[in-house]
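Changelog-linked ticket: uridine-5'-diphosphate example.
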Amino acid sequence: MRYDYLIVGAGLYGAVFAREAVKAGKTCLVIDKRPQIAGNVYTREIEGINVHVYGAHIFHTNSREVWEYVNQYASFNRFTNSPVANYHGELYSLPFNMYTFNRMWGVTTPQEAAAKIEEQRKAAGITEPKNLEEQAISLVGTDIYEKLIKGYTQKQWGRPCDQLPAFIIRRLPVRLTFDNNYFNALYQGIPTGGYTKMVERMLEGIAVRLNVDYLAQKQELDQLADKVIYTGPIDAYFGYRLGALEYRSVRFETEILDMPNYQGNATVNYTDSETPWTRIIEHKWFEFGDQPKTVISREFSSEWKPGDEPYYPVNDEKNNALYARYRELAEKEPHIIFGGRLGEYRYYDMDAVIAAALAKSREELRR
Ligand code: UDP
């Protein structure tokens, strides 16, 4: 059997592209090197709790189109992400908002909070922020930078904040209101029953082969289809011939605890630099669980090395320049489309991955 498309990677990009291609009357084979579908949004049930095996995923978007799209494959609950930051036992609300400013400085009005930030920004002498450190201080001042950003960011990225791009911290809202919603998004929630089920529905009726390593059997697999959609790391595809792109990897230590409530929140970030983990996820709270036990995951961040799972592209100037050269190689391959966080080397959120897969499939299937 020969297919129109061989789709490498059964994560969100691959699943959406496959679904759209099949809708357009094309045939697809989806392969994944893991023993399961759903890429890094994979959830597995443990003690009746949907565990986010490859890290916490909270679906949020401002795109009505994307929201309606995912709602065809799952119903979403009303979960709102409101992480808590733990700095040496002091607890702060995230994202940075009036609750945070009140706890940090005792201020009670937006005017006082704004004045405090402005005072600290001025004292630091920052006019045009050039890196994450300067961007953070100019947004929220030095106290919050020191207690809630510096340690966490250095653990997360393994690099000092003055060597990281400013855009990373601009992912987080800063609000002069009492609003602990982490995302500025019109739509937000967790798919009821877990992400795996949602991806399963996207892939319904589509051929899927698991435990298949594309790069190890490329020649043979390429024979199966006219075109390839590749969602793995772009540098790996080209055998790292221009050098390796840098990624951050994440390791999880997951425990089942014989208690109904460990930390009272889905996410607690440990923002000091001494605690070795970046955050602890208590999975049941994504779905308001009432199970007698609980499952927690401590998250440890590390520099990616061959054999590890790549999670976060390090989108600094050096890596973006190298990616641009890989991109040039990619343009010369007419029968392959690179997509997703790893294929496009971009710190994509889930909704952006879906939007990109929809846009690309439209462009492709129109032909
Ligand atoms: N961040 C921080 N302190 C926190 C949470 C986030 O300094 O308590 C910074 C950190 O640099 C992180 C970035 O904000 O990499 C983006 O955070 P986000 O929660 O969006 O990261 P993700 O959930 O994608 O890992």
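Closing comment: Example verified and attached. The radius of gyration is 22 Å. Residues 40 and 54 are 5 Å apart (CA to CA).
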